[in-house]
Amino acid sequence: MSPKIAVLPLNYLCLKVISNQLIYALADEEGKHYETVNRYLSGATHEVLQDLLQIILSSVNLDASIRFNCLEVLLREDVRKLDTGIFPRFYWNDILRIISQKGKRLQHLNLKGVWVRDYPEILSKLIRHLRCLKTLVIPHMADDDVIDTILSLKKLTVLDICGEASYTVGGIRKLKSDTIRVLDIGDFGKLDLCQEEISGYELVAELIEHLPNLSSLRIYSFTGSALLLLYKNNPNFKTKLKYLHDTGTTLDIMEGIINLCPNLESIHMDGPSPGVLEKLTKLKKLNCLKLTKANMEELLRYLRESGSQLQVLKLNHNKNFSLDMSELCLHLPNLQTLECFQMKLTFSNSGAYFMSLQNVELLYCDMTDHLLRYILTNAPFLKRIVVGCVVNMTDGDIFRLCAECDFGCLEELWFSCARSLTVTSVELLMGHCPKLNVVGQLSGWDVHQEELDYLRAVIAATNTDLTLLPVGAGCP
Where does the source fall among the domains of life (predicted)? Predict the structure, then answer.
């Protein structure tokens, strides 16, 4: 049986009650209760204020004026973390002003959802006041003046300035820091960082040199070319990169990656050249591999030699090759996460088991129900499975699966298009899986609204911790 809903922690219940009271008190546009609320919260710790801000600002269905009032009252100088959430345009200027006045000890600021690209001077002034920042998330907003101001942040470790920002090559060249470890910059699939002509991997190579402790360069998709340039200039140069994304990786680029990134743990390669994948054996710390449009035969040769070190494998866009899942079983004994998108999947050995597999996503793949059954029965510790392909299983098939397997670890099961499964399968899964708390997407099953309403009533009456995703537009 699905698990029972545990009693919510007292601190969470208190936060919900207080946040509801605050929303009610601060909904008054005239601000009659501001002073009363300030006095009431004067003894609250900064952790309590942070949690209240998180609950209220992330409530997308709450009117923006109420969320703004709560931000104005709850943001105190000792608050350390703030995610603003989404606000309409006419609030942006005032939000920056409030943060500048009251957020001087912020260590984490995420302005995603507040499009302040039109206020670079105010944004720069704001950053100048936030000397304690360790994480700054301002996608699409930075220009040269903002980058100049970022240089004053001596504790910054995470910086997100990705997207269609307004900085120039000169501005990026000024970005130097010994503390930044994670940088989000550029756009997926775009070679150039700026609108100027020479702002591609050459500029990224300079960035890597200027950020000696950088461990993750995210979003930018041509990091390998930058590393090759650095390798040619100085073969002894070493980076601290643990993650990178590269497109069109050649053997020369792979040589640069291997020599400059001895600590690499995760890599995403899009369209690698022949021979590149077999070179991955030289990356001894690699545990996460994502490949797009890669040669599967080369991948299997790599897996046969070094597959035991992989915990995460993500494969995209290759229906020209039938990937044998039982081969993955044999060569990836420690695999925990497997994701396949637009792949052709088969299996040949029903006796091979995924003894470590916990998370599976199969989206738009050419596969059979036999393969799905193989995964469900041969992955004893499976926690989550998402299938975005047509599933032709019947209630009888689900019954037989439940009879054969205990599914003792299964927490989430998502079949997006399973027209032969009815409410009977939902009830079977509810009764059989002791940890199951999500079943979906029922809009693609043969489940009707009245049946769903009845099941939800049973779930509520029995205090069962199970979410059934709503019935909506079905699959084609």
Answer: Eukaryota
